[in-house]
Amino acid sequence: GAVVSQHPSRVICKSGTSVKIECRSLDFQATTMFWYRQFPKQSLMLMATSNEGSKATYEQGVEKDKFLINHASLTLSTLTVTSAHPEDSSFYICSARRDSRWETQYFGPGTRLLVL
Amino acid sequence: DQQVKQNSPSLSVQEGRISILNCDYTNSMFDYFLWYKKYPAEGPTFLISISSIKDKNEDGRFTVFLNKSAKHLSLHIVPSQPGDSAVYFCAVSSGNTGKLIFGQGTTLQVKP
Asked: Lowest-pLDDT range, A21-30, B61-70, B94-103?
């Protein structure tokens, strides 16, 4: 079946540094990918829609200059958390759509970010 | 304000019995409703979906019911199996954009 991978799975960084998270669709091309974040015991919150070859679309309240998204190819989207702070510590999950069917939207395993 | 609510954080069911997970939403404009299953350290995996033109969709042991007037959907798992133990998220969408709004999740434990 289709697989979406994320790298790294876990990262610890110092406050003020930037962290890049990769999301790859391994066996299909995805013109659209999505980035979510999840706080403990809470739901997944959509941060932005990543569009291949164009700018990402951010949800209300998400700082686009802080969470930089680059969808440079049909199989790779990256999320860069710039000047990370402890409050950015969270679980970040991406998803990728193979086609318009809901059952072909696949989620990555997530990246646990801890900012010290 | 939570647009999608799963009011039961956890549910425990005996193997072989029915599991019923519930979800409420606030916006009548939502027209796609989905259930996802999530294991620790993994991303959510699609279980079943229903569009607003239907009130029931069945796939094997899983059935989703949609009550539009009550803005309520539920997932029935019967018979429940220990391997069904996971966190279940309901999610909704307005239009088939791929953008999803998730509930908080319900942790299901199926006891042997």
From this structure: B94-103
